[in-house]
Amino acid sequence: MILAMTNLLVTNARIATMRGGRYGEIGEGALLARDAAITWVGAMAELPGSARSGAEAVDAKGGLLTPGLVDCHTHLVYAGSRAREMEMRLAGKSYAEIAKAGGGIVSTVTATRAATNAQLRAATARRLEALMDEGVTTVEIKSGYGLDAEQELRCLRIARSLAADHAVSVSTTLLAAHTVPPEYACRADDYVETICTQMIPRASREGLASAVDGFCESIAFTPAQIRRVFDAAGRHGLRVKLHADQLSDSGGALLAAQYKALSADHLEYATDAGIEALARAGSVGVVLPGAFYYLRETKRPPVDAMRRHGLRMAIATDCNPGTSPTASLLTMANMACVLFGMTPEEALAGITCHAASALGLDDRGTLEAGKRADLALWDANEPGELVANIGGMRPSRVLFEGRVRP
Ligand code: DI6
Ligand code: FE
Fold first, then answer.
1. pTM to 2 decimals?
2. How close is the Cα of 319 to the center of ligand 2, in Å?
3. CA-wise closest residue to 311 among 338, 273, 344
């Protein structure tokens, strides 16, 4: 998309810059952007005299300006519903039991494969638009419900195509190692071979994925299988992420750290050594309170250890039909505070700057010169309000690449 040159000036804003993961508030602030990048952020009193000429002006009228929100872990591309599984879980069946009985991920794979491109795109777009309504300007979208080369690449293509007609930035991740598809039943290693020799090379060659993810768990793939996937990703120039230690300690955090993963996600059962290793590796720890809540888990991710070791924490929706059917990132931020004991400041960093880091995107997530002009304006008096409410907050305006989103 070719954008005309634009100058943007936001005035009278209370600004949460989120620099360094802190609110970094500026009481009466202004922001300037040119060609979709921020050029200046500061106090109104210091606004350069020349700034007003020729700029599109947005008067924030005392409202709160934050970076556009970043949802760094979603499974938006799927068809069908798993509402029945909720009833089964409430009747006492576990997620693992339902998966073993043919429900779970495989049932969504069946529905997804059967959907036409138009159906799958429309269903995905609905969820994406719900995220955008809450101020999300960057979203990561994983494949993982296709589970053969054509279907996985189709899901990635659909995800990528949504950025063409939505004012949002989409980062795609190949999650072929989500579960073993029925045609490879009892031949998980053969499936891993297909991932390594066909899916990863094609996703890389066709420019369809920015990263490769895997589900390391007793009901999914072993650490040895994930290593093969990660080695293949490395050979094809792709960074990795991992669903790690969600339902049991499978050494996922340590494994992710060894491969300098962009992020390790879930982490309920991660050990102290695993958290320390992730921090040293420069990875981000992504907590997913929606899945914790929906599966009625009781073991919380070790937030204290994350703080102690200086592991950057992000929060995401994990939007998927089986374990986290939600498209509300702000509700997840609230839940990260209430359920996991994160502070509202940590939570806001977790859906802005640290979420951007979990995607390897260092050009966004804070309001400072040089970063993308992806902004959200809120009728709020202080940044904590975004997190204190249980969903329901909507930005009064969103600017994407320096332009007001229609
Ligand atoms: N962990 C999860 O919570 C989701 N995927 C994963 O690897 C669950 C996906 C599903 O149940 O459909
Ligand atoms: Fe997930």
1. 0.97
2. 7
3. 273
